[in-house]
Every structure is written in structure tokens, then in C-alpha cells.
């Protein structure tokens, strides 16, 4: 195997491990992601898995990075080109609830899962999650501020409170869908987001 082919094979193996880690974390939490369990799921040796990441913490950090990458790809990338302010904010909300309702993981929205796993802890994994979520919150706040300045949202709109409301609705989708079997969560969440923005009459 050539050096380039070997490097590509190693990259594909790493990606397969991270995808398996993400799926496991969505079902059982990020703490369930261990070298041994991933080796069993993938039919690899423990040495083969540990050689990719060197430690459980490194594996968890890269799993979080993959989750953030998925979120950016499915939620932010499709709307980033739109006009700043209300047009992009509404499109982002629609993309966000679609992602939360069907993120591609059996256990539902993994971003929500890892947040609940680590919100009260300290350490590198906590910090990585907080940084990623802070970037998303900042993006939402900027568009809210632009929408207020343009007259599309009322003067005095409390951007942090609006962001909190939007996050709460998105976070409620997975338990409503998986725990209670609600099959209209995407519609309900989007209507709720419009209501928070003062646009409840929108279809």
C-alpha cells in the first residue's frame, strides 16, 4: 500500500470509529464511548482504536467535533448565504428543527445529548461543547439584532431571552419524539419559534 493510500485508509478508519462513537453516544451518552466498546462494534482490536486517538478523552473530543461539524453542515451552511437578519433567522430555525427531528442518529439530536451529559462538569469536553454552542448562540443573536435594527422585530427585543426560547424548543424535540411518540414535533417547534419571534401568524 502506498503512503497516500495508507493515509487515506487511516483517515477512513478514523471516520468510521467516530461515526460509531457518535451513534453509541446518541443512544447511551458520551460516557458510554469507550475504546473497548468501539472495538467490539467495529470488529477492530483495542490497539487499532487506541492508536487512532491515544486516549478516551481525545476520542470524546473528536466525537464532539464531528457532532458540531454535522450541525454546521445541516443547519448553518444551507442558510449562511441568506440576508442577515430575519430572513436568515427564519431559515436557520427551519433548518434547526429539521436537524433536531432527524439528525441521523438513532438516539436523536446528539448535540442536545452531549450538552446534557456535560453541562455541569468541568474539563476539555465541557469546554469544547460550550465553545461550539456559544458560536451558534452568537450567530442567532447577531441576526436578531439585525432584524431589530431593520424594524422586522420589535424594538427592545431581548436577544438572549429569544435565543434561550429557541434553544429550549429545539432541545425538546428529541424527548417528545422518542419518549412520547409525538410525530409533529418539527411543526410544533417551528410554530413555537415563530411565536417567540412575534410571528405566530406565519404559516
Automatic annotation (TrEMBL):
The keyword Transcription applies. Keywords: DNA-binding, Transcription, Transcription regulation. This is TetR/AcrR family transcriptional regulator. Pfam families: TetR_C_13, TetR_N. It comes from the Bacteria. Residues 11-71 form the HTH tetR-type domain. InterPro entries: Homeodomain-like_sf, HTH_TetR, Tet_transcr_reg_TetR-rel_C_sf, TetR_C. Residues 34-53 bind DNA.
Amino acid at each position: 500500500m502506498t503512503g497516500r493510500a495508507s493515509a487515506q485508509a487511516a483517515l477512513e478508519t478514523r471516520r468510521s470509529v467516530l461515526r460509531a462513537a457518535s451513534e453509541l453516544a446518541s443512544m447511551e451518552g458520551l460516557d458510554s464511548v469507550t475504546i473497548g466498546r468501539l472495538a467490539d462494534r467495529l470488529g477492530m482490536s483495542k490497539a487499532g482504536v487506541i492508536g487512532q486517538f491515544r486516549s478516551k478523552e481525545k476520542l470524546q473530543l473528536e466525537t464532539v467535533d464531528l457532532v458540531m461539524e454535522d450541525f454546521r453542515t445541516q443547519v448553518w451552511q444551507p442558510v449562511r448565504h441568506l440576508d442577515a437578519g430575519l430572513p436568515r433567522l427564519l431559515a436557520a430555525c427551519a433548518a434547526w428543527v429539521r436537524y433536531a427531528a432527524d439528525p441521523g442518529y438513532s438516539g436523536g439530536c446528539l448535540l442536545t445529548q452531549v450538552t446534557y451529559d456535560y453541562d455541569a462538569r468541568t474539563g476539555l469536553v465541557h469546554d469544547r461543547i460550550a465553545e461550539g454552542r456559544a458560536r451558534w448562540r452568537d450567530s442567532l443573536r447577531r441576526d436578531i439584532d439585525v432584524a431589530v435594527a431593520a424594524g422586522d422585530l420589535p424594538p427592545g427585543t431581548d436577544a438572549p431571552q429569544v435565543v434561550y426560547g429557541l434553544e429550549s424548543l429545539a432541545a425538546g424535540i428529541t424527548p417528545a419524539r422518542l419518549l412520547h411518540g409525538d410525530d409533529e414535533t418539527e411543526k410544533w417547534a417551528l410554530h413555537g419559534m415563530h411565536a417567540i419571534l412575534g410571528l405566530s401568524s406565519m404559516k
